Amino acid sequence: MLWITGANGLLGAALTAKCKAALQSGHEVDIGDLALVRRFVKLHPGITHIVNCAAFSMVDAAEISREEAWRANAIGPENLGIVAREIGAKYTHISTDYVFPGNVARPLTESDPVGPCNYYGETKLEGEVRALALSACVIRTSWIFGNGGKNFVAKMLRMLQTEKEIRLTDDQWGRATYAPDLAGAILQMLPFSGLYQYANSGVVSRYEFGMAMREEALLLGYEVVTESMIPVSAATFPSMCKRPVYSAFDTTKIEKHLSIRPWREALREFLCAQMPVCS
Length: 279
Fold this sequence. Notes:
Order of helices and strands: EHEHEHHEHEEHEEEHEEHEH
CATH class: Alpha Beta
CATH architecture: 3-Layer(aba) Sandwich
Strand content: 15-25%
Helix content: 25-40%
Radius of gyration: 19 Å
Number of strands: 12
Structural class: alpha/beta
Number of helices: 9
């Protein structure tokens, strides 16, 4: 039996859709409370796998709500690992590209130096360390998009249909990840332990992604009103904390176990899924 924490989130929902029989735990279990986690597994005997999709993922808010972010992103992963060990379950934890400083302009491997440039990244890195110490499979991912929840691609789709001009950053690079693709990868990696990285293939900036998204939306028959897309610096959008400038993964390690498709192919599938009829 698979227990998915954070099943109400973007990734958790995609994972749940791929395995209907899974136990779901969104807001009802505080993973930062070890006693509550133990109580949950006691009430649901037979859990063989735990996948932690729960997180405090509001990057700017983490700078203010530090205790809450630490509880969810550092203590929570450790608690799940402790309980997984106690009941003999395999444990998978989801992490982020924000564990990297983002100052090296080449695809980053699992063995590259980490060094978060904001507090959110610090909490996620600590969660990685604690989960790995308890024999977890930790999968880093980046730029997740899909149905439901707040994400860059869903916001872009709304803007393409309502805004004549869109400004997007062209000085930050990464790899986008389609939530259903990552969910499938997680299921394939359930037997494994150790650190891996996953994202759809192809390094891209937000501006390049937006341009491609406009092209795909037009080809699929969306009513796109956006006439111009303007590349701008990330400094155009003030933020409470720094973001990595370059955080694209090298996914060679995980590709020994599964295949990864290009982000544009995944984007096309996402856009097609939003239309009542898609040819």
